Amino acid sequence: MAIRFLNTYTRALEEFRPLDPAGKTVKIYTCGPTVYNYAHIGNFRAYLFEDLLQRHLEASGYQVNRVMNLTDVDDKTIRGCRAAGLPLAQFTQKFKDAFFEDLKTLRIKPATTFPAATDPVYIARMIGMIGHLVEHGYAYQAEDKSVYFRLNKFPDYGKLAHLNLEELRPTGRIANDEYEKESVGDFALWKAWDEADGDVAWESPWGKGRPGWHIECSAMATGLLGDEIDIHCGGVDNIFPHHEAEIAQAECCTGHKFVRTWLHCAHLMVEGQKMSKSAGNFFTLRDLLQKGWSGREIRYVLLSVNYRLPLNFTFESLAAARSALGRIDEWIARLAEKAGSGQNASAHPLADPTRFAEALGDDLNISGALGVLFEMIRETNRALDRGELTPADARALLNTWEKINATLQFQREEEAISQAVLDLVEARAAARAAKNWAESDALRAKIDAAGWSVKDSKEGQKLSRK
RNA sequence: GGCGGGAUAGCCAAGUGGUAAGGCAGAGGUCUGCAAAACCUCUAUUCGCGGGUUCGAUUCCCGCUCCCGCCUCCA
């Protein structure tokens, strides 16, 4: 089934074809977190989009080799570790651990590799690349001892962002150059050590210092995936200058085109505003969990809008997600009951998974895909109400759901019912047999308080997790 | 100033040159001891505004308004 993506570089919808001559493996590089703090939900929106991308490619038969880097040395991590009075590695470890925990909470499939910038293997590779760039005239060491990329040697710089460098308006964010870079746009490949760096430093042919942020990604991407990769993802804010710099460095080192398809995820807003600490609308994943929302509910909200569109995150949308997921849960429970233990599946037309996959194949049109899913749910329920579905039909639908869920990861995890709750249910059954409705309602309230909701059907009481 | 994205019901949002998916919320009904769930019915004569092309435009073209992002290390 065809898959199309809107490539940032060409601004065109392109049919996806992997580099792999066998057409099997897909190489993806995704910019990972800077581990100086807990990641916020805006970060996770990007990681969830990448997760959806990976899972849909896998569902389409590809094998995905994905790299996500961990930036564990930069201005912020250095500032953080010095403020905490900890060695850099010890400071960042805490946030690395937290990051992996958060990935699990959100059911994000781990990348194949999570290289860290400070890994000696990659530091060595970065130094090697910088050396190559200096040797070939693409970079130079300035008076401040830092090494800079010589932008006028790479005319393609700005093509990804579609910026004309001559027309850039200075915004005051460019560090003032007392040290005479050749051109203001030249970015640092190697940053010479200064006092603010404390004991964070590596030796290099240009003296003590540390790598620039951009070269970290180029080194890890080409080191692990080769000169040319299929897909490179990140947030829109990374397009310029980060990804431009990555292209410049990689292509000047390898002489090859670096990335075939660039995919960029739009920003997350919270309650209609840009998320910021000062606006009081800044949330980490942990903040939301603490407020009682679950990982899958947050996953649903962050995933339910196409990655290229700005997503307005609200608590109303979390509540909507909870209801929508409840609808899916009910549907699965009904199907499971109907299917029983029979494994024979029919070829019921409702169980056709292709429309769902087709929607996702269209630049990850998740809204369209969810529309297909919920139509399937309504049609199934209707048929079930009319007694028109056989156990084999139900099994077929469940099998289809399994495929869909492999991509969405929305299914509720099974949870054992505690003995205390089972006792309450049993007592309630007795009260109901005696038509003692007051007692029945009181027990229902207790079961509810224990975190389960009970429903009465013709076949008796049914429990589900609240 | 340059570049880019967007504007569809109370909220989120899909979509197409031929008369508006889906989710949430809301109203009524069936079912139920009551609920819950499920199902049924209803909820945008209309897709930011003004022109144009067309038999026909939310969809194409032109102009405008508003919102958001980026413009040198924020996903």
Give structural notes.
This protein is α/β, with parallel strands linked by helices. It folds into three domains: 262 residues, 3-Layer(aba) Sandwich (Rossmann fold), CATH 3.40.50; 124 residues, Up-down Bundle (Four Helix Bundle (Hemerythrin (Met), subunit A)); 47 residues. Helices cover 44% and strands 15% of the residues. It is built from 14 helices and 15 strands. The strands form five sheets. Strands 4-3-9-10 form a four-stranded parallel beta sheet, with helices on both faces. Strand 3, helix 1 and strand 4 form a beta-alpha-beta unit. Helix 9 packs antiparallel against helix 12. The radius of gyration is 27 Å and the shape is elongated. The chain starts with a strand and ends with a strand. About 2% of the residues have low confidence. It binds one RNA strand of 75 nucleotides through helix 1, strand 9, helix 6, helix 9 and helix 11.
What distinguishing features does this structure have?
alpha/beta, Rossmann fold, Four Helix Bundle (Hemerythrin (Met), subunit A), 3 domains, four-stranded parallel β-sheet, four-stranded antiparallel β-sheet, elongated, RNA-binding
